[in-house]
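At your convenience, could you comment on the folded chain following this short note?
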Amino acid sequence: MRSAVLRIRLSSNFSLYNVWDRARYDDEDRLFFVNTDVNCDVGVLRLCMESRVEIRGRTVDVKLEFMCYALGWTSALDDVNPFQYTLLDYDIHEPAITKVQSQISSWDYDTDEVFTMLIRQKIPRNPAVMIKIQNTDYTAVVTAKPTCSKDRNLCTGPVWDLTFACVVYQDIDVPQMESNQWRMPIYE
């Protein structure tokens, strides 16, 4: 039986390009899982958001490739080691993403090692990723909302859902998004 899962929720304008670690990902249920090794609770996704938006009477195509690194999802909602994630514009952060991906693709890693890689590569912990819609005064903002629940049909521990959404804002109304610091896990 699975001990914890991270379920990925995508609307129709999102495409999943790739996931790491494939051995801990269930394509059918679209979720990452761990069985007993809770120190391997890492899920990495490469995604694309494509949308057609109506702006002042014209249709504009919006496309954004981005990465999501999700760590610590074996933790319960009130755990000392919280679930953490980041969203990164693939084009802006490509050099750092390439370095991290080349390392995690070539060996069996644990959560602490991925935290260390993200910090070493100066990858920020962003709650959202944004793209300016060309030739307009609008910006598309992609967010991920984590929620925690229990479902004994899926696993014995926490079920984290990470729900992705995109909202288009006029530039003057784009919410402020601040990066946070990664919090390394504490073990007793």
In short: Residues 55 and 136 are 8 Å apart (CA to CA).
